[in-house]
Write a structure and sequence with these properties.
By secondary structure, the protein is an alpha+beta fold. The chain has a single domain (5-83), classed as Histidine-containing Protein, Chain: A. It is 39% helix and 21% strand. It has helices spanning 5-8, 14-32, 58-71; strands at 41-45, 48-55, 77-83. It has a three-stranded mixed β-sheet with strand order 1-2-3, covered by helices on one side. Strand 2, helix 3 and strand 3 (77-83) form a beta-alpha-beta unit. Helix 2 (14-32) packs antiparallel against helix 3 (58-71).
């Protein structure tokens, strides 16, 4: 349910603006808190929020999903977050 002056007046688009505001707040939390995840892309498509990007660790990915659930508890969230491969190579690279 949308809140705010637009929703109270029954103006079209009030729900979309509210969702955009909530997504912006989520983005601010991801950048500003201990995560400092600046590489996450958050989009609202249809009725689903899509989060895409690369996280440093599995713990960071879980933290991103936790914050998203806190900020958007009543919205479906689809996360396509991959982990960065920070392991050392097991063999030298051959350059020709």
């Amino acid at each position: 349910m949308a809140t705010g002056p637009d929703a109270a007046a029954g103006k079209p688009g009030a729900t979309a603006r509210n969702t955009e505001y909530r997504i912006a707040h989520l983005q601010e939390r991801l950048v500003g808190e201990e995560l400092a995840e600046m590489g996450m892309r958050i989009e609202y498509r249809g009725d689903t929020v899509h989060i895409t990007g690369t996280a440093s660790t599995a713990g960071d990915r879980e933290a991103i999903l936790r914050v998203a659930a806190e900020e958007l508890p009543d919205m479906p969230v689809r996360a396509d977050i991959v982990l960065a491969d920070a392991t050392a190579p097991d063999h030298p690279e051959e350059i020709s």
